[in-house]
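Practice record 12: protein with protoporphyrin IX containing FE.
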Amino acid sequence: MFGLVNKGLEDMVCSQYGEATWTEIKSKAEVQIEAFISMDAYPDEITYRLVDATSAVIKMPTTDVLEAFGKYWLLFTAAEGFGSLMAMAGDNFPEFLQNLDNLHARMGLSFPELQPPSFLCSHLETASLKLHYYSERPGLTPMVVGMLKGLGEKFDTDVNIQLTASKAQGSDHQELSIAHKPKCPFKQFLHQNNN
Ligand code: HEM
């Protein structure tokens, strides 16, 4: 994956546990790269090894590390200058989810080797939808859940997420059924009209 992803994990660990912990994680993962370069592509295996080592060193289940990272990713990418990309993707939670492929396609303009996931929305109702997540990469659904929870916070929206079909059960993708409700519809209205 692109160095940006590994840098995001590093940033999360360093901000919460300090640089010494990150050094320990890299050593446990047998990653000798001194500094990741955002725009360089690294083998996926490096990211998986770093996530596993983070889980072992901070004593947190891998799924929780991935979920925390998913939430952190939204703050990190905004701080790294991708805030306008996020802003273009939508003014509310369901709209944003329908633009995830557009967001990654725009990202692909700067990162030509990007291998982004793909997301499709179906069963769009006022307060619920199904999000279909397609990826060649295994095991990253908790990261998606973290991102969805982070988006819920960003849009002041309560979200409830259930995994309703998965590759483990024979499907060709992950299906998440999501209920969403703005915490304060009036605030949401103001947010939409101020941006
Ligand atoms: C401005 C915000 C975002 C940026 C800049 C961004 C960019 C990226 C980049 C660079 C990768 C690595 C792909 C590669 O190395 O080939 C990636 C992967 C990924 N992105 Fe995004 N992304 C953003 C928001 C989101 C959101 C909101 C979601 C979902 C709710 C999402 C879901 C994913 C997932 C699940 C992956 C892991 C790769 C996979 O599943 O195959 N991203 N994204």
